[in-house]
Amino acid sequence: AWERTPGGTAATLDEVWQAMRTCVRRGLEGRGELPGGLGMRRRAAEMIARVDAGAFDGGYEHIARAQAYAFAVSEENAAGGRVVTAPTNGAAGILPGVLIEVADRLALDTAAVHRALATAGAFGALIKHHASLSGAEVGCQGEVGSATAMAAAALCEILGGDPDDVEYAAEIAMEHNLGLTCDPLKGLVQAPCIERNAMGVAKAWSAAQLALGAGGGHLISFDRVIQVMKRTGDDMRREYKETGEGGLAVAVNLPEC
What we know:
By secondary structure, the protein is an all-alpha fold. It has helices at residues 8-29, 44-52, 61-78, 94-106, 110-130, 135-138, 144-158, 163-175, 193-212, 222-235, 248-251.
């Protein structure tokens, strides 16, 4: 309905999809220490090697692979590489991690990938319009929480969910990220951000599966959850909103006793 020229939407979705794939590939090839002084090393290549070697139980293998992809994207972001903000740089690994793994494993066609990306984008747009995607405004619930909701909705769509199931998947994912703080060490999008992206992958899968098995009907709507997320962010102390003045950002400097 919005495209200016016929085929424009599909072309843009293709561009986004290829950028995601390129980012994952680069991230899986990366080695060494990430810049910034935290001493964090890239782990995506080691993670995917373990998956390929069969180090994970079969029931978890697809999630572990998606988490390796999320690490790859997040490490590219931390190293100044090109990522797709989905919906932000700090949460850029969750959606491509989930979608690339399932697209490859299920051999999804272009139409299915486009529909999944569009579904994720629609939920991201709702969050942006009615609440916020910014960690500086509402904490990491607005970044990783939003990305997890977008990924859960897209995944539920791929797995055959109807519109009610898809909405429920997004609601579950957002609901269980409420109150998540944004407290990166030294202000760098590395710790806890990279692992938090991997956890978002697992939450997205859980949310989609819970929604598909619910049998219809749930108490809290997605619209209500994003309203609550916004209010929670407004109530959150500034120390926990990307200021580096609270939470894990200062906990590493506290003496252990």
